[in-house]
């Protein structure tokens, strides 16, 4: 079943409803936090321990979902209180970035206390992911600071310098062709790998952060960086809408196709690309719609990742074995076709940040998704 076969007025609502149901399954009621992951076993779902970082992302999406007027069954205040009650879970600039972003977007009354509680000026050197210049945490931190600036010009500390420093570190991780490597610091343990290759999450997080930084601090250069990255990953998008897993900063090619994760398709890509489209006017809607259609069965396995019976959207389509993964990398470097469907399977697990970004994207840009489904179904182009 393909998203483009659905009524364009209900397609986004269907995904949001499934996401909300999945989050109910992921919720640890005693802790008022979301489990890091659920996985399907013979006895049903198996839950991992809670994750505060992923809970913040889930809550960010749920609050935007609640604003859209659709019904929900969560005690959002209890979840929020659980996040802020003890912030010792903040162990990196990525954690700090998502926390300040959440406050700036949804709970501005908490913004000043967070800025006073943490040393933002020294965060890049205090936290390991900052010292290693890891791309996704840098992007998360830059986006959080930028949202704080947008939320209030009267924050208790001037965050301009740390924002500029973070932007420069992030930009250093970007190759001339537009792709971001996973990390930049030479002392990173996996330096030869991480300084050359970057995941799709690295690309999407960076695009969003650059656009938000440009908007918050009234600068134009980051928009060019974001467009450079977005245009190359769109060129590399699979013929079935896949946002592939791993990219080569030097050659601007895909080096590992799988896993293709649902969070890329219906969460991170729509958030990043639709935000960029709003800022620049360059159209990315067709690429976003292809990614959404992949979720609903227009993929290499013909498998609908929306499990209506269990109320979940499955995590990914992944390779069955590590050997198949090595073969995929080898073929990619040899400029040959990637693996076929016989080596692939649906990964029957789910994580709360996936559903948080889905709810965030489709609640914020749902009008674009609905209109786009109808547009592609009619064979129109942007």
Determine the CATH topology. Answer: Glycosyltransferase
Lateral strand order in the biggest sheet: 4-3-13
Q: Could you give the order of the helices and strands?
A: HEEEEHHHHHHHHHEHHEEEHHEEEHEEH
Count of separate DSSP helical elements: 16
Using the CA coordinates, give the radius of gyration: 20 Å
Task: Return the CATH architecture.
Answer: Alpha/alpha barrel
Report the average pLDDT across residues: 88
Helix proportion range: 40-55%
How many structural units, i.e. domains? 1
Q: Major β-sheet, in short? A: 3 strands, antiparallel
Describe this protein's structure.
This protein has about 375 residues and is mostly helical. It has a single domain (about 5-375), classed as Alpha/alpha barrel (Glycosyltransferase). Helices cover about 55% and strands about 10% of the residues. It has 16 helices and 13 strands. It has helices spanning about 10-25, 50-65, 75-85, 95-105, 110-115, 125, 130, 135-150, 160-170, 190-195, 200-215, 220-235, 260-280, 285-295, 320-335, 350-375; strands at about 25-30, 35, 40, 45, 195-200, 245-250, 255, 260, 305, 310-315, 315-320, 345, 350. α2 packs parallel to α4.
Show the helix and strand layout.
Layout: H1 11-26, E1 27-28, E2 33-34, E3 38-41, E4 44-47, H2 52-67, H3 76-85, H4 93-106, H5 111-117, H6 123-126, H7 128-131, H8 135-151, H9 160-172, H10 191-194, E5 197-199, H11 200-217, H12 221-235, E6 246-248, E7 253-256, E8 260-261, H13 262-280, H14 285-295, E9 306-307, E10 312-313, E11 316-319, H15 322-333, E12 344-347, E13 349-350, H16 352-377
Antiparallel strand pairs: 1-2, 3-4, 3-13, 5-6, 6-7, 8-11, 9-10, 11-12
């Amino acid at each position: 079943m393909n998203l483009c076969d659905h009524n364009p007025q209900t397609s986004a609502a269907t995904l949001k409803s499934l996401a909300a149901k999945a989050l109910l399954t992921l919720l640890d009621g005693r802790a008022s936090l979301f489990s890091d992951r659920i996985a399907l076993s013979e006895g049903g779902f198996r839950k991992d321990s809670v994750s505060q970082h992923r809970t913040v992302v889930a809550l960010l999406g749920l609050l935007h979902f609640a604003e859209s007027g659709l019904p929900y069954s969560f005690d959002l205040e209890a979840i929020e209180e659980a996040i802020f009650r003890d912030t010792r879970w903040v162990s990196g600039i990525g954690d700090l970035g998502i926390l300040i972003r959440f406050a700036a977007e949804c709970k501005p009354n908490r913004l000043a206390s967070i800025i006073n509680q943490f040393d933002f000026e020294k965060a890049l050197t205090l936290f390991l992911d900052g010292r290693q210049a890891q791309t996704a945490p840098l992007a998360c931190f830059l986006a959080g600071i930028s949202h704080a600036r947008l939320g209030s010009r009267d924050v208790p500390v001037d965050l301009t310098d740390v924002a500029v420093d973070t932007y420069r570190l992030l930009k250093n991780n970007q190759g001339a062709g537009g792709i971001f490597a996973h990390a930049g610091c030479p002392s990173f343990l996996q330096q030869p790998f991480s300084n050359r290759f970057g995941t799709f999450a690295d690309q999407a997080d960076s695009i969003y952060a650059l656009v938000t930084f440009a908007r918050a601090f009234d600068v134009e250069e980051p928009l060019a960086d974001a467009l450079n990255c977005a245009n190359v990953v769109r060129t590399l998008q699979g013929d079935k809408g896949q946002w592939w897993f791993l990219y080569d900063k030097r050659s601007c090619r895909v080096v590992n196709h799988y896993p293709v994760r649902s969070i890329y398709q219906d969460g991170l890509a729509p958030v990043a690309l639709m935000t960029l489209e709003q800022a620049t006017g360059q159209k990315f809607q067709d690429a976003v719609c292809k990614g959404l259609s992949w979720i609903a069965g227009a993929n290499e396995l013909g498998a609908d990742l929306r499990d209506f019976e269990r109320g979940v959207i499955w995590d990914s389509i992944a390779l069955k074995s590590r050997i198949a993964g090595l073969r995929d990398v080898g073929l990619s470097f040899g400029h040959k076709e990637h693996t076929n469907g016989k080596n692939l399977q649906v990964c029957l697990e789910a994580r709360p940040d996936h559903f948080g970004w889905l709810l965030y994207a489709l609640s914020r840009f749902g009008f674009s998704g609905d209109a786009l489904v109808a547009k592609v179904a009619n064979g129109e182009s942007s």
